[in-house]
Design brief:
The protein has two helices and five strands; from the N terminus they run ββαββαβ. The protein is of the alpha+beta class. A hairpin with an 8-residue loop joins strand 1 and strand 2.
């Protein structure tokens, strides 16, 4: 059974306007689309096993940039670590606790990375 729509927020960001001079770019949600060089970004390497059936993962948070660049970085990390993972909601999720290896790879790429938690 499909989820019931409760309000305008549930319609996926539609903007209803009859104004011919409407500027859609003023309302677009492109906050993570800013172009920053790796040295200007500060990433965090988190360890987590909550909500994953006890399996450990490393989560990289704080990336600011286009989604395709996030996906490229995630693929590169997964390939160099030889593990699986995913990229979603602006985070890179790498299977296993490989924080030290991931941090050294990101530092070689020019990113500022800090270890967070445990």
């Amino acid at each position: 059974m499909a989820k019931k729509k409760l309000g305008l927020e549930d319609l996926g960001g539609f903007v209803f306007s009859t104004n011919d001079d409407f500027d859609e770019s003023a309302y677009s949600n492109d906050e993570n689309q800013e172009e920053l060089s790796p040295k200007d970004q500060s990433l965090e390497a988190h360890f987590s096993n909550k909500g994953r059936g006890g399996k450990t993962v490393t989560i990289i948070k704080g990336f600011r940039g286009p989604d395709d660049e996030l996906i490229r970085l995630g693929k590169m990390l997964k390939k160099k670590c030889g593990v699986g993972g995913s990229t979603k909601d602006g985070e890179i999720i790498i299977q296993g606790d490989d924080r030290e290896k991931i941090m050294s790879i990101l530092k070689k790429e020019g990113y500022n990375v800090k270890r967070v938690g445990g």
